[in-house]
Amino acid sequence: MACANGSEPAVRGSSATLKVLVAGGFGAGKTTFVGAVSEIEPLSTEELLSGLSEATDPLDGVEAKTTTTVALDFGRITLDERHVLYLFGTPGQQRFWFLWEELCAGALGAVVLADTRRLADCFPAVDFFERRGIGFVVAVNEFAGGHRYTPDEVRDAMGLGPEVPVVRCDARLPSSGTGVLASLVQHLIHPKSMPSMRSARRAE
Fold it and tell me: How far is residue 90 CA from its own chain's centroid?
């Protein structure tokens, strides 16, 4: 199976080992997502937020956040006997975007986590993957207290084409995250067979 960016996934025995990025804005739930679905102890590079970061990492909408990823998150999940996914969570802050280029090398696809409280924060991730031809799904992480946009509102706000799956998720739940990853794999294998909106549950 060819990768969305033209490379071939590594094959280990009869299983394909696939590299998947988990991206999105600051505080969208990337570390939580990777940690919830990983079958191994996830690697995290979270550091405590300090007063010095307030100017560059505004906490509007995520006031309870106390830590931030400064390099990457890493986890692994076996979807089935044919698909083993290696997950790389990207840092969300703009000052760490230079790491995205290195992390995306060899990636098959990506999950873009969207927080409806700060929906515009995921636009850079969408643009990044579109420009590089990397297939992705958008997973709307529905936080408590966040506005529940309709599927059409999310798609229209983000300017997504009908070929890009948009799924709902709760990043804290392994079953929900696994459903998102299964949707991604199906989208990459059969990109035109996926409906425009599914439920695994760019606004101005």
Answer: 8
Count CB atoms within 10 A of the CB of residue 80.
9
- 158: which residues sit within 8 A by CB, 6+ positions away? 114, 119, 122, 123, 126, 138, 166, 202, 203
Of 97, 125, 100, the residue nearest 111 (C-alpha): 125
Give the mean pLDDT of the chain.
77
Kindly compute the dihedral angle of the four CA atoms of residues 171, 198, 103, 120, in this order, to the nearest 10 degrees: -80
Residue at token pair 């692994």: 76
pLDDT tens profile 76-106: 999 888 889 999 998 866 666 778 888 889 9
Q: How confident is the model at residue 71 (pLDDT cuts 50, 70, 90)?
A: low
Which helix (H) or strand (E) element contains residue 139?
strand 135-141
* Of 85, 112, 91, the residue nearest 22 (C-alpha): 112
Q: Can you tell me the distance from the alpha carbon of 113 to that of 92, in angstroms, rounded to the nearest whole number?
A: 10
Within a 10 A sphere around the Cβ of 8, how many other Cβ atoms? Answer: 11
pLDDT, one tens digit per residue, over 8-35 is 444 445 567 899 999 998 888 999 999 9
Q: Which residue, among 97, 105, 106, has the nearest Cα to 24 in the 3D structure?
A: 97
The answer to whether 170 touches 154, Cβ cutoff 8 Å, is no
